[in-house]
Amino acid sequence: MDASQAAERAPQVGTPTMAGVPIPAKRPTPYLAADELPDGLLLVPPPPKPGSAAQARDLEGAKQAIAQRGSARWVLATSDADLFTPTSTGTMSCAAGRQIDAEATPATYNLLFRAAIDFSNSTASAKDHYKRPRPFMENGGPSCTPDAERYLRLNGSYPSGHSAIGYGWGLVLAELIPARTTALVARARAFGDSRRVCNVHWLSDIEEGRVTATATFVRLQTNSAFTADLDAARRELSTLPPVAMKRDCAAEIAALAAE
């Protein structure tokens, strides 16, 4: 490691992260204890081997992502990278048919924000075991979140924590708003694919993140604190009138359709 690399990595020691992103000081408590969490290392196969057809597919997906730099889809992917602001869950608003964030739907936001820790944790064992380098580390191309790259370099690429979180959010919201299931799961899938567009995850990383998210969602439904918060969110969504949408849903639909 040269001096510049050492300087880049030094500030990261002891910094808590989730899905490769620094966690705010007020981190929510996960619903599931470590021994209750599905083990991603057992749920997903090893990452694609060099020279395999699966690796070729990953490489092609990354090549396509670099070509999308600066596009509307790239802008949406940059927005999807946000996990820790009061508006982070707003990425699911258009699919939900109403604004979903800390201000408009606080109970629903708190449910999603807390469950995000569990969805991300479900990828940790495989991430730590395989320590797969991320696309921008291999191809030298830009990512849509350059400020996060120093953290991402120290966080394994496989499987994707962002994909697990986004897909998990889609499943939770589909439970709460069943009439919007198709739109929500489709948006959750696209949320994960935003990480490929951002050049920070391979396609296979994203696909396997959905697997760990699905197993975690099933496990969460046996947790009394989760089900209580789920009921509170359901009551909130059935009683609070929708507020004005903060997102440009037409632009979001157009960006996803152009991919």
Report on the structure:
The protein is mostly helical and 259 residues long. It has one domain: Vanadium-containing Chloroperoxidase, domain 1 (Up-down Bundle). The protein has 14 helices and 2 strands, in the order αββααααααααααααα. It has helices spanning 3-9, 40-43, 53-67, 72-80, 93-96, 106-121, 124-130, 135-139, 149-152, 161-176, 181-197, 203-220, 224-239, 249-257; strands spanning 17-18, 21-22. It has a two-stranded antiparallel sheet. β1 and β2 form a beta hairpin. α10 (161-176) packs antiparallel against α11 (181-197).
Q: Main traits of this protein?
A:
57% helix; mainly alpha; single chain; 259 residues; Vanadium-containing Chloroperoxidase, domain 1; two-stranded antiparallel ribbon; 14 helices
Concise account of the structure shown:
The protein is mainly α and 259 residues long. 57% of the residues lie in helices and 2% in strands.
Helix content: 55-70%
Q: From the 3D coordinates, which CATH architecture would you assign?
A: Up-down Bundle
Oligomer: single chain
Number of structural units classed as domains: 1
Poorly predicted parts: 1-15
CATH superfamily: Phosphatidic acid phosphatase type 2/haloperoxidase
> What's the total helix number?
14
Q: Return the structural class.
A: mainly alpha
CA distance, first residue to last residue: 38 Å
Portion of residues in beta strands equals: under 5%
Spatial strand arrangement across the major sheet: 1-2
The sequence of SSEs as H and E is: HEEHHHHHHHHHHHHH
Keywords: Hydrolase
Domain Phosphatidic acid phosphatase type 2/haloperoxidase: 110-221
EC number: 3.1.3.2
Region (Disordered): 1-24
